[in-house]
């Protein structure tokens, strides 16, 4: 959303659509959380290339559709690229055992984690979320401001429970899902969640 903030100042008539589209684009890649996470819907190269074209089109022909498309793609691109600057795909990323951060479909290889932000849900990750939210909280009106506050609340809870989630996930899969799930369902549970 913060990437769309300048649009709200320069072209207020497109501000809301750019902000919401940026949010949607920023969330979109993580819809692959349980189906090939950071590979199925993460496209650091393709989203970036498409976003560049879509942004140029939105500047040349500014409509609600071109602006929305540009910011969905920009949000997805930034998310996909940013995942390479965090931890890897391991269940406990603070252990730094994975050499996979995000899949680069163009080069057909995994990009290694840089760990500039140690892991998702780390205190540093939360601090970054707060720093990016401040301009939005100062600039936005009530409906969108509350959306940002809600996102920060989710980030705060996630940061608080992040280090216990791996153990909880393994216990839930082992003690709840395994005995109750119909045959074949466990094949769809990522291996990192199985004991």
TrEMBL record:
Segments traversing the membrane: 14-33, 45-78, 126-158
Keywords: Hydrolase, Membrane, Transmembrane, Transmembrane helix
Domain of life: Archaea
A GO MF term: hydrolase activity
Protein name per the record: Metal-dependent hydrolase
Organism: Haloplanus aerogenes
């Amino acid at each position: 959303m913060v990437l769309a903030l300048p649009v709200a100042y320069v072209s207020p008539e497109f501000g809301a659509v750019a902000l919401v589209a940026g949010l949607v684009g920023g969330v979109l890649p993580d819809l692959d959380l349980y189906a090939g996470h950071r590979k199925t819907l993460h496209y650091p190269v393709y989203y970036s290339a498409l976003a560049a074209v879509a942004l140029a089109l939105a500047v040349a022909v500014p409509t609600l559709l071109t602006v929305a498309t540009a910011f969905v793609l920009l949000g997805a691109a930034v998310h996909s690229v940013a995942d390479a600057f965090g931890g890897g795909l391991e269940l406990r990323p603070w252990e730094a055992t994975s050499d996979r951060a995000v899949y680069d479909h163009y080069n057909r290889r995994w990009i290694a984690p840089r760990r500039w932000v140690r892991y998702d849900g780390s205190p540093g990750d939360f601090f970054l979320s707060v720093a990016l939210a401040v301009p939005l909280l100062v600039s936005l009106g009530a409906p969108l401001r509350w959306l940002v506050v809600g996102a920060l609340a989710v980030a705060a809870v996630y940061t608080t429970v992040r280090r216990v989630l791996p153990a909880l996930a393994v216990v839930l899969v082992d003690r709840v899902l395994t005995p109750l799930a119909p045959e074949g369902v466990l094949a769809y549970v990522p291996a990192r969640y199985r004991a």
